[in-house]
């Protein structure tokens, strides 16, 4: 495409199949979910899965897509559209920054504020969202993927951090918790399904209004969860990866 990229949205995770449904792969899960939502919103054939390309040279699975901007009622805003790169780094989580740096250079995106990173967050309750922009390293301390991105491009990128909460027992090590699968127990999967929808709405609002403070106020740390949660029987959202 000849037009410039408006945003890169990177979901963090580990690429190995055994981690597909784990809490630490919340970012990966969201990117697959978002790709499916965007495909449906664009009116594309539901039989066609969203296509990602495995770019070994970029160390990432990448989807380059354009979608029309709509307002809160779903009405198109003039002829405006947004070019977005959806990506999932293929490095280990702790080396996510290298892939993101490669993708930013490849698509000539120099403004880190146009990079949105989606990752899991132990310190945010399940079903709730933390949104951050700028700040210092302390705001990302403890998440090795985010720390590695900071080491490559600094702290000015936008973070959407998906709450996975902490272990319900002191006997469960943090590593075991984050690398464990989302569970039906305590409606954990249902809460995460709600969070996927909430994060998508927040990104849409950010795309329309370009106002991170507004989005944080409206969507981050929502104290009241819905009385009724949609039942989630799976957090696997199929995509078609070319070049595997």
Automatic annotation (TrEMBL):
It is an enzyme of class 3 (hydrolase). Pfam families: Pept_tRNA_hydro. Its EC number is 3.1.1.29. This is Peptidyl-tRNA hydrolase. It comes from Diversispora epigaea. Gene3D superfamilies: Peptidyl-tRNA hydrolase. Belongs to the PTH family. InterPro entries: Pept_tRNA_hydro (IPR001328), Pept_tRNA_hydro_CS (IPR018171), Pept_tRNA_hydro_sf (IPR036416). GO terms for molecular function: peptidyl-tRNA hydrolase activity; tRNA binding. Keywords: Hydrolase, RNA-binding, tRNA-binding. It catalyses: an N-acyl-L-alpha-aminoacyl-tRNA + H2O = an N-acyl-L-amino acid + a tRNA + H(+). It comes from the Eukaryota.
